[in-house]
């Protein structure tokens, strides 16, 4: 340094010195990011991840590996040993990243974890926690594991992790989007030949890009397990399917209204969790309680799906179209600047174990993204009264001119809305008779429906369809299919 400053009157050396200073500054900036200094400012970590490697959710008519019990002894859609290992590794990574911020010993004061209501996400979370919190004062000298409580959201009520709830308004705009949007039309037209090729070879009834999802699901899982794919599916087929699904991943939350109804509840939860820590929920004990359960915890974890990651990232404006891999983790950190005491948010995305997580920056917020700004830009995307915005009031029962006895909405754990309706006994009887005659009619038409028409639903890895597959194959229901019925 001395040498350089003495010679600083020489122009080239002045440039060199400038560069050196910049380099040193840059280097110290990247270093402190990972070191203790950063931890001093950390206030809350929220980790949302996809489950680990799993068996396929579907099979297809011409699948050479269609004999599930031979090739996938865990059962359809179940976590594999490899998946457990990926999650254990993610847990170890989180331990290393937050060691010191999190105590060495598990305590309920620091951690609160929630899973979607699926075997593979629950098992993933358990494997992850085994890596994050190995036992310290062992409860048994021979067992390298300790129990840690975890919660699930019943799948019928889940509008956060594996969204499965009715939202008529959302379904209506989604249908419109799929049938009228130029984006959708173009991609379907551009890929007609490929879709026909896949349909013919696989025996799947596929007419749109979206219909190819089950094929991607199966082929991807098989290739991950070194099962050699049939000749027609080798070469470009799988990469092309992945590329197409990367695009369709943005469709469920394509417009702002779709974001608000479909991604908004989860975004709202993440923001509210941070508001509780940053003191923005103030004196409303109900709010504060529903979020942090009365305790300001240091880490909240959510075990979920690729569709969850795509949905929340696209809603936050940080999604680059891709297929989130197994055990991919979105890490939302709330920091407080030790000098200015301002809160700011950092979003890290670990979708590659061979490198440091990507630092994602919502375009509207910039970096560093102050929490105030974050609240401002996300506000329009968070529903105030989700049930109402979904038009949940206009239920199918209105069709029969039945009047609801009363209807209440209350807030449950994690800010979940619980919507309940009461019908009188006579109304129920009338409805029962109606339903009985309708179901007789339904039996007549159901065969046709199963053969021909496809619904407009999105395929994702959450296992919404295996039940059709099981019928084709005349086999009992498995795995996720069972959970759905
Ligand atoms: C598949 O093969 C690769 C390379 O030979 C190997 O590293 C990997 O462990 C195999 N995967 C499985 C699930 O057997
Ligand atoms: C990982 O995430 C980055 C940032 O969003 C994205 O550009 C990349 O394609 C992703 N890669 C994989 C393997 O998911």
Automatic annotation (TrEMBL):
Print the keywords alphabetically: Disulfide bond, Glycoprotein, Hydrolase, Membrane, Signal, Transmembrane, Transmembrane helix
The question of whether rRNA-binding is a record keyword is answered with no
Return the Pfam families for the record: His_Phos_2 (PF00328)
The UniProt catalytic activity note for this protein reads: a phosphate monoester + H2O = an alcohol + phosphate
Its EC top class is: hydrolase
TM stretches of this protein: 428-447
List the signal peptide residues: 1-31
Domain of life, per lineage: Eukaryota
The record's PANTHER family line, in alphabetical order, gives:
ACID PHOSPHATASE-RELATED, PROSTATIC ACID PHOSPHATASE
Q: Of which family is this protein a member?
A: Belongs to the histidine acid phosphatase family.
Q: Report the protein name in the record.
A: acid phosphatase
This chain's source organism reads Orchesella dallaii
């Amino acid at each position: 340094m001395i040498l350089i400053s003495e010679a600083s009157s020489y122009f080239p050396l002045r440039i060199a010195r400038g560069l050196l200073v910049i380099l040193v500054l840059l280097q110290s900036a990247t270093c402190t990011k990972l070191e203790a200094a950063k931890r001093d400012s950390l206030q809350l970590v929220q980790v949302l991840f996809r489950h680990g490697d799993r068996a396929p959710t579907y099979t297809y008519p011409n699948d050479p590996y269609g004999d599930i019990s031979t090739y996938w002894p865990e059962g359809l859609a179940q976590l594999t040993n490899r998946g457990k290992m990926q999650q254990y590794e993610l847990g170890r990574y989180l331990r290393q990243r937050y060691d010191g911020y999190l105590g060495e010993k598990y305590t309920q004061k620091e951690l609160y974890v929630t899973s979607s209501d699926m075997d593979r996400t629950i098992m993933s979370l358990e494997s992850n926690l085994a890596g994050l919190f190995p036992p310290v004062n062992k409860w048994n000298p021979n067992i390298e594991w300790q129990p840690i409580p975890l919660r699930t959201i019943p799948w019928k009520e889940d509008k956060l992790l594996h969204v499965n709830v009715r939202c008529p308004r959302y379904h209506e705009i989604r249908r419109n989007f799929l049938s009228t949007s130029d984006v959708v039309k173009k991609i379907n037209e551009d890929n007609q030949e490929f879709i026909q090729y896949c349909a013919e070879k696989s025996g799947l009834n596929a007419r749109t890009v979206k219909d190819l999802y089950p094929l991607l699901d199966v082929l991807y899982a098989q290739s991950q397990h070194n099962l050699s794919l049939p000749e027609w599916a080798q070469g470009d087929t799988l990469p092309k399917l992945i590329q197409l699904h990367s695009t369709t991943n943005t469709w469920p939350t394509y417009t702002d209204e779709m974001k608000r109804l479909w991604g908004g509840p989860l975004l709202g939860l993440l923001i509210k969790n941070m508001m509780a820590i940053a003191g923005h929920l103030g004196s409303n004990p109900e709010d504060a309680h529903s979020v942090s359960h009365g305790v300001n915890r240091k880490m909240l974890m959510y075990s979920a799906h690729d569709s969850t990651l795509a949905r929340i990232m696209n809603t936050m404006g940080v999604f680059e179209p891709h297929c989130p891999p197994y055990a991919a983790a979105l890490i939302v950190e709330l920091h407080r600047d030790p000098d200015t005491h301002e809160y700011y948010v950092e979003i890290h995305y670990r979708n590659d174990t061979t490198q440091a997580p990507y630092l994602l920056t919502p375009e509207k917020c910039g970096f560093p993204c102050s929490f105030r700004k974050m609240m401002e830009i996300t506000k329009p995307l968070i529903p105030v009264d989700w049930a109402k915005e979904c038009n949940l009031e206009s239920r199918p029962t209105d069709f029969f001119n039945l009047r609801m006895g009363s209807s209440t909405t209350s807030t449950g754990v994690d800010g979940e809305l619980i919507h309940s309706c009461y019908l009188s006994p006579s109304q129920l009887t009338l409805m029962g008779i109606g339903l009985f005659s309708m179901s007789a009619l339904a039996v007549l038409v159901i065969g046709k429906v199963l053969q021909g028409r496809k619904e407009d639903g999105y395929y994702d890895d959450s296992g919404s369809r295996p039940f059709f597959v099981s019928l084709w194959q005349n086999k009992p229901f498995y795995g996720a299919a069972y959970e759905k019925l």
